[in-house]
Design a protein that fits this description.
16% helix, alpha+beta, 13 helices, 54% strand, single chain, 43 strands, 826 residues, 3-stranded antiparallel beta sheet
Length: 826
């Protein structure tokens, strides 16, 4: 018995030693495999901070965990992080680690993960990171060195997953935040039952600028009969909750040669009007449980047929509300007589056969009736639109039916409009075929939000016709800002229905605009782990003024005062042409910094592209000190301006990208220009002070400079000047060189000594200016100065000209001997 116990103890000890030692033995092999396979397959930046192996966590499987994993795009996505995961764990069959037959993965755990999927306007997706597969022949000829990875998944666990999908080409956005889910089943078999449970507090979906879901709560508990052999999936017991709506889906979906076959039906027997209202974010977020409702509601949906590249299944979604109402018990009024009939259907086949109908959408808000009807056919090829709206909305009564917090709202909206016709009528300028008439009027609209400037629209009128949309009688006050707009827009229907170019003419005037009031400073950031770098990826750009690519405007500006950052512009006038994401300035003139500027050039900032400025500025009477105070470009490239008094005129051409604060990216600024001044006052300029000390001329430290002319170029973070003369009293300096972003000075030149006496005979002396603006270093060639002085002194002592007035060889000999003697003594 003792022998048996001894053997069992030894065996147990060996097993424990193996459990502790094996992870370290295989960790290097697994880490090498993961990075090898990743680099082999991916055309992207990929890394993780640590790889851990455990034989205990999912025994008898080995757990392989990647910590702080990230996958970053390449090329046009090099600044976008596609995946960032706090922890990824895979359970691998322990025995598959031995040999080269492959590694079986049975369980995957994903924790604290963010996925950011993007489709650019050009259709390029950021998840296309797989390298092209090698040619089959090459694969056969070159045997792989690594073992294959087989997925025999039995369980997938997700904890705190956030996924966003931003399709900028299709105008669609979807996001799931803080998703928790588990999925189990024998995915290695030909058929299994998949159990799926999931919940997220925030599901968002919008398309075409319309928010269909906004931070809706989603819960699902589903059983799916998965026939992997035939690629058919049948929904069994399932419950899906969206906010207060609870539904289930019956049917199946199967992968077929020509697409995905399906026969599905939405069952919503328990849906009532109150549950439908839960899909409206503003209502669901405000005392929803206490909301009183009445009326009948139904929601049905089905899809049957093939979903393929060029076809859709037969489908229909129908919503019907009869005599609905809702009211908050704490408020004096409600919304009544709500009647909605909405339908989206397609008989199957071409997506262009889809028909959308809303007729009617009627309600009475605090005694004011409003009615809307609309329908769209052939939405893809040539939208055939019919729409009408009649009624009055008294915004001042909204507070009687909805609990407004930190907000006051007043004013009226009066609508009486009718539209009918095809978009092609507008495109072909067949305006007689199109029906468009009516107006929408805003009167005395006032909106006050906490921590926001008050908005006051005294009146505004939108007038419709087939050819144009007229915006007139519009004066808007936002806080201390005022704006009066008179405009006319063409192709407004094409812009609204298909995103085609909106054309127009705008006349804009204002007494006061502070641009900073309209620039958001909010950003949402994703921090890349420290194992990579400290790059921050911003999902919104703070401060960037974007220019839509589908507007074509000619704007006439007449603005009395504009504040931008530290700059104050007065009497702004000129013509701005907005087209293809670019604003062209034509003779845009304004007074600023004590003088005046006229600008010509372009500011380009289409969506998804770094803002860029390429413009020329003609400047007159600009103050040196004011330019330094208000312009970051001057502060970084010409800090000497801070100590100068006086005004300058000239011109500047600049070509530079702009950062998220609309400031030039200094290292990439390219430019040139000229500067002239007639009344420059130099006082306590450090390198001038040093020159004054060297030549023993204290009066040079505070002196007036006349007629300074300077030509310069800006490139690679430095300002390079052509040779220019700087007259300091009786002295003249001729300088050229450069200054940089690092505040360094690299100038060379000559200083001409005063005329009269011996100075007129000494000529010029070489000098250098180095160091920095805060600590300059001035050097004057004293040996050259001494040599000139010796020459002039000896020339005065030795006389001996021939009959033609030329110096004799005897004189030259004496001078040479004297200079040699001077050098020896020096």
């Amino acid at each position: 018995m003792k022998k048996v116990l001894k053997i069992a103890g030894i065996t147990l000890g060996v097993l424990l030693i193996l459990i502790l030692v094996l992870p370290f033995a295989f960790q290097g092999k697994i880490e090498k495999l993961v990075k090898q396979e990743g680099n082999k397959m991916l055309n992207a930046q990929f890394d993780f901070s640590a790889l851990d192996i455990s034989l205990i966590r999912n025994f008898p499987s080995a757990s392989i965990t990647l910590e702080d994993f990230w996958l970053k795009g390449a090329g046009e996505f090099q600044n976008d992080t596609l995946i960032q995961a706090g922890e990824l764990t895979a359970a691998v069959n322990l025995f598959s680690l031995f040999g080269n037959s492959g590694y079986d993965i049975s369980k995957i755990i994903i924790e604290d993960t963010k996925v950011k999927a993007i489709v650019l306007e050009n259709g390029h997706p950021n998840w296309d990171v797989m390298k092209p597969s090698a040619d089959t022949t090459d694969t056969e000829e070159t045997p792989t060195e690594s073992a294959p990875i087989r997925i025999k998944l039995q369980k997938l666990s997700i904890k705190d997953l956030s996924v966003s999908y931003d399709d900028r080409q299709g105008g669609m956005y979807a996001a799931i935040n803080h998703l928790n889910a588990t999925c189990s089943g024998d995915f290695g078999s030909e058929r299994t039952t998949v159990d799926l449970s999931m919940e997220t507090p925030s599901l968002t979906y919008r398309t075409g600028g319309i928010p269909f879901l906004n931070k809706a709560r989603l819960e699902a508990d589903m059983n799916v009969d998965a026939d992997f052999a035939n690629n058919k999936y049948t929904l069994k017991d399932n419950t899906i909750s969206l906010n207060a709506i609870q539904v289930n889906i019956d049917g199946w979906a199967a992968m077929q040669k020509n697409g995905i076959g399906m026969d599905m039906k939405l069952n919503t027997n328990e849906v009532g009007f109150k549950e439908l209202l839960s899909l409206i974010p503003a209502i669901y977020a405000k005392d929803f449980q206490d909301l009183k409702t009445d009326g009948k509601a139904s929601l049905t949906a089905f899809a049957k047929g093939i979903l393929g590249q060029d076809q859709v299944p037969q489908f229909e979604v129908a919503l019907d509300v009869k005599d609905g109402m809702f009211r908050y018990p704490s408020l004096p009024a409600g919304v009544e007589n709500i009647n909605i009939t909405a339908n989206v259907k397609n008989a199957g086949g071409n997506i262009d056969a889809t028909e959308i109908t809303v007729s009617p959408f009627d309600f009475v808000l605090a005694g004011n009736p409003f009615s809307l009807k609309a329908s769209v056919k052939t939405p893809m090829s040539d939208p055939d639109l019919q729409a009408s709206a009649q009624g009055t909305l008294d915004l001042g009564k909204v507070k009687e039916v909805y609990p407004l917090e930190d907000m006051t709202l007043n004013g009226t909206i009066q609508a009486d409009m009718n539209l009918a016709g095809k978009l092609s009528y507008i495109e072909k300028e067949q305006y007689d075929q199109m029906k468009a008439a009516g107006s929408i009027r805003l009167n005395n609209m006032k909106l006050n939000l906490q921590d926001m400037p008050a908005i006051d629209i005294q009146r505004s009128t939108f007038s419709f016709s087939p050819r144009y949309l007229q915006l007139s009688e519009t004066t808007i006050n936002i806080g201390q800002n005022d704006l009066t707009v008179d405009s006319r827009f063409e192709n407004y229907l094409g812009y609204a229905l298909k995103g085609s170019t909106l054309k127009g003419n705008l006349n804009i005037s204002s007494n006061h605009i502070h641009v900073n009031d309209f620039i958001s400073s909010d950003t949402t950031t994703v921090q890349v782990p420290e194992t990579h770098d400290s790059t921050t990826v911003s999902s919104s750009e703070a401060g960037v003024i974007r220019i839509p690519e589908n507007i074509d405007f000619t704007m006439q500006a007449n603005l009395k005062e504009v504040l931008f950052d530290k700059m104050k512009l007065e009497t702004v006038s000129g013509i701005l042409t907005v087209k293809n994401g670019t604003v062209d300035m034509r003779n845009l003139s304004f007074n600023t910094m004590g003088g005046s500027i006229t600008a010509n050039g372009a500011y380009s900032a289409p969506k998804g592209v770094q803002p860029h400025l390429n413009a020329g500025f003609d400047m007159k009477g600009i103050g040196f000190a004011q330019a330094y105070e208000e312009l970051g470009l001057v502060q970084q490239l010409a800090p000497i301006f801070s100590g100068l008094k006086g005004n300058f005129s000239g011109n500047l051409k600049i070509n530079t990208p702009l950062d998220e604060k609309m400031s030039p990216v200094m290292q990439q600024v390219q430019g040139s220009g000229s500067l002239s001044t007639k009344d420059l006052s130099l006082s306590d300029v450090k390198f001038i002070n040093q020159v004054a000390d060297i030549v023993k001329k204290p009066s040079m430290k505070d002196i007036q400079v006349k007629d300074l002319n300077l030509d310069f170029e800006i490139a690679d973070g430095r300002v390079t000047t052509q040779p220019f003369d700087l007259k300091l009293g009786d002295y003249t300096m001729n300088l050229s060189g450069s200054t940089g972003l690092d505040q360094t000075i690299d100038y060379t030149g000559k200083i001409t000594l005063p005329s009269g006496g011996i100075g007129s005979k000494l000529g010029t002396v070489d000098m250098t200016i180095g160091g920095t603006f805060t600590s300059p270093k001035v050097g004057i060639d004293m040996a050259s100065l001494a040599k000139n002085a010796a020459e002039q002194a000896l020339k005065g002592l030795v006389k001996g000209n021939d009959e033609n007035g030329e110096e004799t060889k005897e004189k030259e000999s004496v001078i040479d001997k004297a200079l040699n003697l001077f050098k020896k003594k020096k």
